[in-house]
Predict the 3D structure of the following.
Amino acid sequence: MLLALRIPSPTRPARIRAPRPPHGTIPALLLLALLGCQPPAQPGDAGSAFRQAGGSFPAAWTFSADADPVTATEGMVATTDAYASRVGVDILAAGGNAVDAAVATGLALAVVNPEAGNLGGGGFMMVRLADGTVHAQDHREKAPIAATRDMYLDEDGNVTDRSTVGHLAAGVPGSVAGLWEAHRRFGVLPWAEVVQPAIDLANGFEVTVRLVSTLDAAQSGIRAVPASARVFLPGDAVPAVGDTFSQPDLAGVLTRLRDQGPDDFYRGETAALIVAEMERGGGIMTLEDLDRYATVWREPVSFDYRGYTIHSMPPPSSGGLTMAAIANIVERWDLGEMGWNSPETIHVMAESFRRAYADRNEYLADPDFVELPTDEFLSETYADARAATISLDRATPSSQVNPGIEAFLDESHTTHYSVVDGAGNAVAVTTSVNSWYGGKVVVDGAGFFLNNTMDDFAAKPGTPNQFGLVQGERNAVGPEKRMLSAMSPTIVEDPDGDLFLLTGTPGGSTIITTVLQSIMNVVDHGMNVVQAVHAPRVHHQHLPDLVFFEHQGLPAATVQALEAFGHTVRERDPGPPDAYFAGGMSGDVQMIMVMPDGSFTGWSDPRRGGRTEGR
Ligand code: DON
């Protein structure tokens, strides 16, 4: 049956790679990078296999298919923020490896991107060392010991906002432990040297448009918490672009982190400040919770996609396994032949997304608490069975894939960064406080926001969370349990087993489909790194039963063709104009590609305005 679905592709090249840019462009680009500027989109780079095959983006689409990437030979850092990317490149220049640079970058993001970068949240780190070994580090938040299954329900059993706002929304933070442990295991520079740049930034940096935009959007929630407003709305106002923004309390926490390591955060003065904040605001996190927090090195999820090996995060991230399931299903069709963004390709992708998300939402959770069908997600038999139910003519309603209820997709915040060094070590990290500025609670005296990641649990199984994900009993709240995540830092090897791509993104439930599309854009459609990041994306998550597409990302004829298949298609709302963030878009991919000569090309997603720097 499945063989009948497979479209043979005898002439398709085994690997499609963007050609490397002419050497003459490198000095100019490096100069721009040193000046802190990602080069603007340049017309005229028709050099990718995608362009050579006549590929183009929809006429109304916002971003160019013809921009030159940032290039470098000694190392590269792609983040959402120019300050943070600069910190990472400086650490590489000082003799640090990719892990040192990633740790310094992560701490810098906690200072300059407090809406997502964090000390009070958690995340996942993928490391691929130059020797080819791959490591997956889980520093996801945990539910406090006092957490209970129904803690977010009111007397009538309805979900309250306590999983998203305020002190009860916070899981026990993992970022500090994660960055420390990564450095302890793999770093080469002294710890103090990788922490220092973040301290310097906390002592004052020039306010960016990005900080103003995110504070503007979140200011009513921040204003409601006096300790948060005191730090982030000085004089009861969002700071202005160009102001010097100093965070002395945060500088104090970072200085203690530099001098005492994570002991201060989990057992010392900072721990005491967190617990005092909890007691003030009716939270349940205790010193025992902080003391017991530990990161976990887990077995990476590794799977083959058309000859490339994709390494990504295992549970409690759902990213690796869900991507594996989708990849194994879509591999039964030659999407390159079928054409990028064609109705047929989008149909196959949406049907695969729908099925894999149905299983993700139902089965995946914290592996330390729940037995998971890991092998099924990875197996060809599973993919065969799921693919066999896909009709090439007709969308399968989600109600026939798995019973469910209508839900809603929303947008909030997380951040991803990708780092490579000249020796070929690679680090991909996705980290989050969940919503923008988490639960809006700053730890008084410590100057950082706590996450609201408890909302990633199914507060009431079968009811949508803030991303519209309808998740099951296995992901219910439980003491010391980690909440299921979609965060998917990912590293890809080429068919020779060499380092090829680093990718990752924020975007809540859309993370998994965005990361996989960034890879498929390269592997299936021959895009270069800029095109793979710029290309408009689609998304389906089983429930709600909708194919989402980005604002102006699909031509009307394609939408009609998808509707003719039976899909309900929803264009994302651009919302009010924003000074910094592209409206109606999903994701913020930070991607680095290793070129055949060993040099790097990289690109930061313009949807949220990041910055790639190389050296
Ligand atoms: O772990 C997760 O899946 C979510 N906490 C991620 C949140 C996110 O990406 C929000 N950003 N846009």
